[in-house]
Amino acid sequence: MSIVAGVDFGTLSVRVSIFDSARGRLGSGVAEYPLDRKKEDPDHATQSHADHMSALAVAMRRAIDAAGVAGDSIEAIALDTTGSSVIPVDAHLEPIDDYYLWCDHRAWKEAAEITAAAHGSNLEAIDWCGGIYSSEWGFAKLLHWLRHNPAKLPRFASALEHCDMVAAVLCGIHDPSAAPRSVCAMGHKWMWNASLGGLPPEEFLSALDPRLAGVRSKLAGRYATSDQIAGHLAPAWAEKLGLRAGIPIPVGAFDAHWDAIGAGVRVGDVVNVVGTSTCIMAISEKPGLIPGVCGVVPGSIHPGMTGIEAGLSATGDIFDAIARRAGATVADLSRGLETYRAGETGLLRLTWDNGDRTVLVNPELSGVTLGWRLTHTAQDELFAAIEGTAFHTRVILERMEEHGVPVRRIINGGGIPQKNAVLNQVYANVMGKPILVPDGDVTSLGSAIFAFLAAGAFRTIEEAQDALCPGHATIQPDPAAAATYAELFPLYRKLYFALGQRKSAALTIGDVLPELRAVAARARGGKSAGSAAD
């Protein structure tokens, strides 16, 4: 038997879970940290490295207490984080600013410049991240920081993803050039591609903006997949965490990627990690380009496979915003949603409240709700938003299937599916396929699996999954609801591409609102096309 710690840094908190290789999860601890947003700038989202590390120490000790084990019995620790969450550092690996969190979109202009320059110079790397560079990703955020912090430039030595920064700090690494660099993070967010020589060429970066001259060399480090060791826990941090110094720490990765491992992903599966946003993960035996899909990176999710990532820029955040505007909570508004029938609200919700990550990769978009009546409620909008996130997910899965990625099983992972049965049923109805939901909480299980590999407790990821991953509950689509969504989805798809692209062709959309009313009337049992409350 082996005991390890799996760490998951989410958007608002860090969770540490202690796992036993035979008995599974022994206990967990959680600690929160603040998110700095600005009402005057909705694109701004930052966090403090010091807050992250303080919370890690608190959560680790809480987890050890909950598990009832001695800290020195833990044999390895593995850490995943949100991404792309970028921090500039000095020559001693000390932060010189806060993290640009994954949901910080201030760099949308820089992202557009990178996209245009990449296509103008025929940079092949842009094709491997869907053809459009995102404001959520590393080079865009770094360029934005370089442009807006002239006084701090003399101290700038490098920039790191959160997962690499926390691993380096815990290992006592103080030289940026010696820091571990996650293939997962750098491949999906920084256009790193081993077959293309690593990062984009110096000539491309310096031509894009003189401030990027020399940055390529500053992003040096030990690029590796997560089956490799980043280093070993330094004595100072061992004391803070209550662990034994010298235990191995594997190279980190993004939370959604390891959540997919914890959910039991295999070839032919798609895992929707549904939380504040949605990350859609799949693995393939060989790489292939998929237009509009965020990244296709060998070794990113499973070190021996090609990882495919797509997603929605906001999911739970949209539900929270709807509830907040109504002066309620999501839990309050969710009571009674199980009585709603497919399409009965007459609303069609394009869930672009935080832009579009896939397949349009357009941060300039905003949420759209069609079909409002005088008597619609916040609860109606919440149900329509759930339907909208399902429709958007279907757009993405169809794009993946069109380009050779099999979608034989759909697994809804992440925190929301564990507590929202309505969402799972709506997703099954919209997809017209069964939805699998893990029977237990898999948050930080992926981290634990890589910690077990580092400790030598399992030989392969699959062996660890077979031993530790829970089974799945299966939610079958309701035939009547699936038929209704089969009517609505073409309307959603038409509007998605028409409203979501600046240069979309002219399109007849006069049928949309009458069709929404007709579908709603049928859903309510043939009553006149009045309000959702009729």
Helix count from the secondary structure assignment: 17
The geometry reads as: globular
Portion of residues within helices: 25-40%
Rg, please? 23 Å
Structural class by sheet pairing and helices: alpha+beta
Measured by DSSP, the beta-strand proportion falls in 15-25%
Spatial order of strands in the largest sheet: 17-18-16-15-21-22-23
Mean pLDDT: 95
Number of strands: 23
End-to-end distance = 60 Å
Residue runs with pLDDT of under 50 for 5 or more positions: 527-534
Report the sheet with the most strands, covering strand number, pairing sense and barrel closure: 7 strands, mixed
Task: Supply the key terms.
534 residues, alpha+beta, 7-stranded mixed β-sheet, 5-stranded mixed β-sheet, 23 strands, globular, disordered C terminus
What does this structure look like?
Helix 2 (108-120) packs across helix 3, helix 12 packs across helix 16 and helix 16 (479-499) packs antiparallel against helix 17. A hairpin with a 2-residue loop joins strand 4 (36-38) and strand 5 (41-47). The protein has 17 helices and 23 strands. The chain is α+β, with helices and mostly antiparallel strands. The radius of gyration is 23 Å and the shape is globular.
Helices, strands, pairings?
Blueprint lengths: L2 E7 L3 E8 L3 E9 L3 E3 L2 E7 L1 H19 L9 E5 L4 E4 L9 E2 L7 H13 L17 H11 L9 E4 H9 L9 E3 H7 L12 H7 L6 H4 L3 E3 L4 E4 L2 H7 L6 E3 L2 E2 H8 L6 E6 L3 E7 L10 E4 L7 E7 L3 H10 L4 H5 L13 E3 L17 E3 L7 H25 L6 E5 L7 H11 L3 E4 L6 H11 L5 H8 L3 E4 L3 H21 L12 H12 L11
Parallel strand pairs: 1-6, 6-14, 10-11, 15-21, 21-22
Antiparallel strand pairs: 1-2, 2-3, 4-5, 5-8, 7-9, 12-13, 15-16, 16-18, 17-18, 19-20, 22-23
